[in-house]
Write a structure and sequence with these properties.
single chain; 303 residues; alpha+beta; Nucleotidyltransferase, domain 5; 2 domains; 9 helices; 35% helix; 18% strand; Reverse transcriptase Ty1/copia-type domain-containing protein; DNA/RNA_pol_sf
């Protein structure tokens, strides 16, 4: 603050407590960011503020289709709730990102089964309204920061289109910074291809963050982002610039990742599936795996 005041006219209002609908709590060990009140308001709006809580936001292996069901009449309510869930999932609740991303695909023509899926997310929020991200204090000011991005894919995870789902999460010095869950735009013919496409998308998202950290002097120019993938075939294809039978079909734009590796912007590492944080952004998991991944993302209860 002292350095900023030397260059600009500023007014110190003290510690931030609320920003863009997010509440900021300070503890002895770190900073908690949550949307407890926003979540309660959403539950009250839908009439689920006293409902029975669900342990996870989405049932394992549950399939949502675009048709073959009774239309949900209140499409406006469906869109409004999905918008609110997207806001929560993008700010402080990465644990509902996968379920929300899946159900947001049906906002133009939802059926009753889709609304039941939305209510499942809301029932999960009923039991975890005070959950948010926790940013732990370090021992001092870090001289350098090490970004690590986890990338994963659920091959043919969208049952209607057979398209895969990409998931990624970026952590810096062990703190969750950003995450993504999105359906791929092309149909992958193999798990390797789906993982390759997901990794390329993840790297594109974090290159700008790498540049920012370097401009701030928090990351040396010769330091690469660590990319952790749990598919050995995909890693070999990323590191091998030779076109093979398996990679010939991939669109040229996805070979962006090979260029990033060659330029030492990215370093690929293999990680065990049990340590793959991005798994939570590709599909629904059982309660034990789900809670373990939430812990690894530093999601904790605060309010």
């Amino acid at each position: 603050m002292t350095q900023l005041a030397e260059r600009f006219n500023i007014k110190d209002l003290g510690e931030a407590r609320k920003c863009l609908g997010m509440w900021i709590d300070y503890t002895a060990s770190g900073i908690a960011v949550h949307q407890h009140q926003t979540t309660l308001d959403l539950l009250a709006k839908v009439g689920l503020d006293q409902c029975k809580a669900s342990p996870t936001p989405m049932e394992v292996n549950h399939r949502f289709f675009e048709e073959n069901g009774e239309p949900f009449q209140d499409t406006t309510l469906y869109r409004e709730v999905i918008d609110s869930l997207l806001w929560l999932s993008n700010c402080t609740r990465p644990d509902i990102a996968t379920a929300t991303n899946c159900l947001s695909r049906f906002v133009s023509c939802p059926i009753s089964a889709h609304w039941n899926g939305v209510k499942r997310i809301l029932r999960y929020l009923r039991g975890s309204a005070d959950t948010g991200l926790f940013f732990k204090f370090g021992n001092g000011i870090a001289s350098t920061l090490q970004p690590v991005i986890y990338s994963d894919a659920n091959w043919a995870g969208d049952f209607s289109s057979a398209k895969s789902t990409s998931g990624s999460v970026l952590q810096i010095n062990g703190t969750t910074i950003s995450w993504s869950s999105r359906k791929q735009t092309t149909v992958a013919l193999s798990t390797m291809e789906a993982e390759y496409v997901a990794a390329c998308s993840a790297v594109q998202d974090c290159i700008a963050i790498r540049q920012l950290l370097q401009e701030l002097g928090l990351m040396p120019q010769n330091t690469a982002i660590l990319l952790r993938v749990d598919n050995q075939s995909a890693i070999k294809s990323m590191e091998n610039a030779v076109t093979t039978q398996r990679t010939r079909r991939l669109q040229i734009k996805y070979h962006f990742i090979r260029d990033a590796i060659a330029n030492k912007q990215v370093q690929v590492e293999y990680c065990l599936t049990q340590q793959q944080l991005a798994d939570i952004f590709t599909k629904a998991t059982d309660r034990i795996i789900f809670e373990r991944l939430c812990c690894m993302l530093h999601l904790t209860r605060h309010a």
